[in-house]
Design goal:
The protein is α/β, with parallel strands linked by helices. The chain contains 38 helices and 23 strands.
């Protein structure tokens, strides 16, 4: 394939998105009064599309004048369409200017529609063996879908392939024209045949094969009116077919070869964005030098102007300032860390570095010791909370003012409970995570020190510590002002330092398409929570308590004496001194180690050790889950509301705390029982959808393993196939034990399992385990190549990357300590796989609410994410309908940005509780 042949052609239906952008955004004007909302929406869409796609050829295609060759066939074609809104008309030419500013071909031709040009270029590219993505949701373009041509709807973030066309029209893509010819299209004034809609048309074409055959045999139609209409209006049907059929042989003026993707010209683009006064987009195109300048400027003001806002006039002045600057740092102060139960105490704002305010709303004026305000225990002067929120609500929801926060998900929760939406947003914690994931922490104190050289006021300095700590509502206003206003000020400075780095480090797409939109999704999930049955938990606790006591008694009997089974010191002495078990290892303190790595190998031959492990497992389940979860039930909602950390795992995986719902054991029957307590509300069902073997699929994809990829494409049992390859056992003779060993190797390889670890896991000698691993690498040499190249690349760069460009920094990869270096090497192998899986499920989570709403299922609620699994609650009569909608999004979540050669598959279950649904 030469340079003149596209690998991937990206055809953007520009005309369709002019109108979508116009109606999607509220009115906007630049300073000279020119309307700009459609230009803004279009520019944002184009920017996101070209940053996401891997296409090497790109074009944006527009309609020329309204009349074209179809009007010669049927003069009334599109004749009844109203004129474009007055505010949109001046934006048409500006949108074409925007396309050129992005250095993209801007194509249109007199006498033809954009769809005809798209059809022609798509046909030319496919003939050369290229892949084509048509960016549009226009049903008229669905007739083009075939092998090599897909559609992508950027509004829903979903792909349109053969199955989606069949779902829409009831026929495959090659029959769509015939269906449209019969049904007509009132939007475009395509007449069709009276009385025939899409469903009837589809059935007729399925029954008769094609339009011509149907019209020839119209006399056979049993329904009199339908037969009469088909005979009488046969010519209208044929005319309609010519109107809806796209021309694929337009004599295009710009050859396909000239659509090769060109790099952005930042200076040219910035000039256009400044002309349009698009402040938010301008920030995305600063150079690396500008990023450094911004970082220096962020820390510049040594003096601060922090103001206490205690009346409406002062608050209105700050709101006016936010409208002028177009940016507003926001932070909330509350009575606690639980976003579902904490009360709002105050709000801090900043509109420029060094200038911030604190708006007290819930201070009570009481404290202890030196934290008392000056002798006054009465509530200080404050704007009534309802009044302040009414004033703030419009600016916090205004699309022309960017709201910036640090860990803004928490603030979205607090304000969301008070019916205060906050949009659009930027989050400095997430920006830091995107550019420096794994390199350091992302809390405000650390970021302020790292990027601004500033030491922040600590919470304990304001509220005290330990038993003397007070809640923030009791902090005197002078101390509250210094602490709270600094939070907003530092956040705004960090934004100036970090935002340009997204572009400089090529992390803009990761941030804007995954991390930033996910914050609101997670806030909604956390607020929804999940119902937990305390009665079930208490019954389990009682059962576990009895079994723990029985095990303890048996252990004492086997040991010949009573001792504290939970004491590692006493247990070690019993096992290795008194009973003389082999394999004991002394720790630095002189006692025996009794961790699972020591005890598990001994359990096979020593029943007392297995009982100790069972004792520990049940004790942990009881203390961590059955006892603790009862306490975690929110007294108001009667549900459990976990909190998701977006920066808790360097691979990008979400982590769950308070309570941790991601570590509930599922490998034991007792652990699985815990999930029985998670139930649906009366009249509802829980739905579980889980990616099947996603990490193994990504190993095949990322390591480019043809045998494994083919196995997944053919729907084979991957563990049986691996066992057949490694152990030489024909698939027809495969037994469960051999398959189990292969499964352990498959998953173990991802995590860099050693021969020792594999031996313990599958119960063989270390020599046998090493032979298994060696044979695995012999059969799948690409795995070893991938591992070696990944580790070496990480040594050079200091990080690894997911398929979506997320960087995971691994500082220990060049450590002199062999143990730390070995650990980092194992991380380097696993992180791109686990990180890509995390990126994919995050992309799905962002798109699912919109897909459900589009399907009329907006009362289906996403509740939990547990690694590769999503849990939903749905009205019982809608659960079955929701599954295919969610599954389609999840299986297509990689999107056109990274089309996978290995299919993603999702398993689904519906039940009254989580265990039965999974």
């Amino acid at each position: 394939m030469t340079d003149a042949v596209p690998r991937h052609l990206y055809l953007i239906d520009g005309s369709a998105y002019i109108f979508r952008a116009f109606f999607a955004l509220p009115p906007m004007t630049r300073s000279d009064g020119t309307p700009t909302n459609a230009v803004m929406g279009f520019s944002s869409m184009i920017l996101n599309l070209i940053e996401q796609t891997d296409a090497d050829y790109v074009a944006v295609i527009f309609d020329a004048k309204r009349e074209n060759f179809r009007n010669e066939i049927y003069p009334d074609y599109k004749g009844h369409r109203p004129d474009a809104p007055e505010e949109l008309r001046p934006q048409f030419s500006l949108i074409r200017d925007a396309t050129e500013a992005f250095n993209l071909p801007c194509l249109e031709m007199e006498g033809y529609e954009a769809d005809d040009l798209i059809a022609t270029y798509a046909k030319q590219a496919v003939a050369k063996g290229s892949k084509v993505t048509i960016v549009s949701s226009d049903k008229d373009l669905m007739q083009l879908v075939q092998d090599g041509i897909e559609m992508w709807d950027p509004m829903k973030n979903t792909a349109i392939h053969h199955d989606q066309v069949v779902e829409k029209f009831g026929v495959p893509p090659e029959k769509v024209v015939d269906v449209q010819a019969l049904a007509g299209d009132s939007t475009d004034n395509v007449p069709g045949v009276p009385g025939i809609g899409i469903k009837t048309a589809a059935q007729l074409i399925v029954d008769y094969g094609d339009l011509d055959t149907l019209l020839e045999r119209a006399g056979e139609i049993k329904q009199p009116k339908r037969r009469e209409n088909l005979i009488e209006h046969a010519e209208l049907a044929r005319i309609s077919r010519e109107l809806v059929r796209l021309k694929q042989d337009v004599p295009v003026e710009v050859p396909l070869e000239e659509l090769k993707r060109r790099p952005l010209d930042n200076d040219r683009l910035l000039e256009f964005l400044k002309l349009m006064e698009f402040k938010r987009l301008i920030a995305r195109f600063q150079t690396e030098e500008a990023a450094q300048e911004a970082s220096e400027a962020a820390a510049a003001p040594a003096e601060t102007d922090y103001q206490l806002v205690q009346d409406e006039a002062a608050l209105k002045a700050w709101i006016d300032a936010a409208y002028k600057t177009g940016i507003l740092a926001v932070d909330t102060e509350t009575t606690g860390l639980d976003a579902m139960q904490a009360d709002l105490v105050g709000i801090c704002l900043s509109t420029e570095p060094g200038k911030a305010c604190y708006i007290p709303l819930g201070h009570v004026g009481e404290g202890e010791g030196d934290l008392l305000s000056s002798g006054d225990a009465e509530a200080p002067k404050q704007i009534p909370m309802a009044t302040a929120l009414d004033l703030l609500r419009p600016v916090l929801a205004d699309p022309s003012v960017l709201k910036v926060g640090q860990n803004l998900k928490y603030d979205l929760q607090i304000l969301g409970r008070l019916d205060v939406p906050v949009t659009p947003i930027d989050d400095t914690m997430l920006m830091s995570f995107c550019v420096d994931g794994g390199a350091h922490g992302h809390g405000m104190d650390e970021l302020a020190d790292l990027h601004l050289g500033m030491k922040t006021i600590k919470f304990e300095e304001v509220c005290g510590k330990g038993k003397n700590q007070i809640t923030f509502d009791k902090v005197p206003l002078d101390k509250a002002l210094a602490y709270a206003a600094e939070d907003a000020d530092i956040t705004l400075r960090l934004h100036r330092a970090l935002k340009p780095r997204l572009l400089a480090d090529r992390m803009t797409t990761l941030y804007e398409t995954i991390e930033r939109p996910l914050a609101q999704i997670l806030a909604d999930m956390e607020r929804a929570g999940i119902k937990v049955d305390p009665k079930t938990l208490k019954e389990m606790s009682a059962d576990f308590a009895k079994r723990i006591a029985d095990l303890e008694a048996e252990i004492h009997k086997d040991a010949g004496q009573e001792f504290n089974v939970a004491s590692p010191k006493q247990l070690g002495e019993i096992l290795f001194d008194k009973l003389g078990l082999k394999g004991g290892k002394k720790t630095k303190s002189g006692g025996y180690s009794t961790d699972s790595g020591v005890l598990e190998p001994l359990a096979l031959d020593n029943p007392i050790v297995q009982k100790v492990l069972d004792f520990r497992g049940l004790s942990k389940l009881k203390s961590t889950y059955t006892d603790a979860l009862v306490e975690d039930i929110n007294p108001q909602t009667k549900r459990v509301h976990t909190s998701y950390s977006m920066v808790g795992a360097q691979t990008g995986r979400l982590s769950s705390t308070d309570p941790n719902l991601q570590n509930i054991p599922i490998r034991t029957a007792e652990g699985r029982r815990i999930r029985e307590a998670f139930i649906a509300e009366p009249g509802c069902k829980l739905i579980s959808l889980d990616y099947s073997q996603i990490e193994l699929r990504l190993v095949a994809e990322i390591a480019d393993l043809d045998a494994l990829k083919q196995a997944f494409q053919d729907g084979l049992d991957i563990h049986a196939m691996t066992a057949s390859e490694v152990f030489g056992v024909p698939l027809k003779e495969m037994d469960s034990e051999t398959r189990r060993k292969a499964k352990a190797i498959n998953f173990g390889i991802i995590y860099g399992i050693s021969a020792f670890g594999l031996a313990n896991q599958i119960g063989v000698s270390r020599t046998e385990a090493k032979d298994f691993i060696d044979r695995y690498f012999e059969r799948f040499p690409g795995i070893r190549k991938f591992m070696d190249e990944t580790v070496e690349g990480c040594r050079e760069k200091g990080y690894v990357e997911t398929l979506f460009g997320r960087r995971i920094h691994l500082g220990g990869i060049n450590d002199k300590n062999p143990m730390r270096r070995g650990y980092a090497e194992r991380q380097a192998i696993n992180a791109p796989i686990q990180g890509t899986a995390a990126d994919i499920i995050k992309r799905a989570m962002i798109r699912i609410p919109g897909a459900l709403a589009e399907a009329g299922l907006d009362d289906v609620t996403m509740l939990l994410q547990v690694h590769d699994e999503l849990i939903f609650e749905a009205p019982a009569d809608k659960a079955e309908k929701a599954v295919p909608v969610i599954r389609d999004v999840m299986e297509g979540a990689a999107g056109p940005a990274r089309t996978l050669s290995v299919p993603l598959e999702v398993e689904a279950g519906i039940a009254d509780n989580w265990r039965e649904a999974h």
